[in-house]
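Could you please consider the sequence and fold following this short note?
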Amino acid sequence: MIAKLKGLLDETGSDWAVIDVSGVGYLVHCSARTLSQLGETGEACTVYTDLQVSENDMRLLGFAEAAERDWFRLLTQVQGVGSKVGLAILSALSTGEVQQACSNGDAATIARAQGVGPKLAGRIVNELKDKAGALPGGGVVGGAATAAPVGGASADAVSALENLGFKPAIAARAVALAQGELGEGASEGDLIRVALKRAAG
């Protein structure tokens, strides 16, 4: 499976981009938020990807941050949310806004996305309310809001902790604490080292 593309931005459209990787052009469907972050045509860019396969279609979705891809995967697990609706939600809202809306049961915020009615928005927040804290976008530790890991070294650190057997929610919160302690420029190794102490504590 293709997990990430790193190349040159070759062409863009209303909801897609072509990424040239060593002469091969990959068509990736993107949210408006991701498209706005890819830069200008001809510039180097990186997208995290998710491959969606159906009976008569194969589609590569691209995201500027790993956190956005993780939320897309979670959203499309909800009945009635396909790739088009998932991208519409992530175009209208940041991952932090989606996380907060799900945590608070705020269906009205989710319904701001194009193609999402009140009924579907209600189903999304009901199904994802308990999972919201496990993904980047926000979390609560000791009753206080904590900035959650978003992409890059922090997302890799969360994945590393999960591979060590920690539950996603515990891993995400431990890395969020480590990020707050070490600062934005912390390396993946330092984040893992501090997060292990927080997760085990």
